[in-house]
Amino acid sequence: MTSADRPLSQENIVDFLADIFERRGDEEYLGEPVTMAEHMLQGATIAEQNGLSEEIIVAALLHDIGHFTSEFGTFSMNDTKDRHHEDAGAEVLAPFFPSIVTDCVLYHVAAKRYLCATKPEYFKRLSEASVHSLNLQGGPMDASEVAEFEKNPNLEKIIQVRYLDEAGKRADMDTPDFHHFAPMVQRVVDAHMTSGTR
Ligand code: FE
Question: How many Cα atoms are found within 13 Å in the side-chain-facing hemisphere of 95?
């Protein structure tokens, strides 16, 4: 099932995401000792173990969903190049999830560039693959980018999810599967869809 086959809705978005985890989750997370699904499940599990909010747990669970862009159909006839994975992920989630979740997904790459610019000790946490992609992503932010980024009202949450991203790269961690989190994902969707803040 791709979003091109059947329009996504409040009722099927969680199944759509579960299906991606199931079919594509075993793919390698390039340069890391975990698969894509393990990586995202580890972040969500660590968030849950630390008693973080459901929105943060769900954001960690879905932050890299945009790596599976081929699942999302073609966005626009005007696209001339591949979208960045963080943009693709946030775009598919945006109709169904609150801005805390979509901002954490959309800005998880920017958060790495931000933390490298503002917290010298953060850089040391990065895996080799993450340092490599940092360079492709523009390197650490400059002062004006930092000032702009700090205007985001969800800054603190975005940073939290970034740390979960870094934490979820363990070769030896057991986690529950997507189905454990599915009811929580649905709760976050339902709360958002009925809140009238769409
Ligand atoms: Fe990640």
Answer: 11
The terminus-to-terminus CA distance of the chain in angstroms comes to 25
Q: What percent of the chain has pLDDT over 90?
A: 68
Q: What is the rounded CA–CA span in Å between residue 91 and residue 75? A: 9
Residue 28 lies inside a defined structural domain of this protein: yes
What are the tokens at 135? 């360079």
- Residue 117: inside a domain: yes
- Structural domain tally of the chain? 1
**In this structure, is residue 39 part of a structural domain?**
yes
CB 8 within 8 A of CB 92: yes
Q: How far is the CA of 74 from the centre of ligand 1 (A)?
A: 23
Q: Ligand 1 center to residue 196 CA distance, Å?
A: 30
Give 64 Cα–ligand 1 centroid separation in angstroms: 5
Q: What is the pLDDT of residue 125?
A: 84
Does a structural domain hold residue 6?
no
Query: Can you tell me which residue has the tokens 């363990």?
Result: 170
* Residues of the chain falling short of pLDDT 50: 1, 3, 74-75, 198
* CATH value at residue 69: 1.10.3210.10
pTM over 0.85: yes
Nearest residue to 90 via CA among 113, 67, 57, 56? 67
Provide the residue range defining the domain that includes 81.
Answer: 13-191
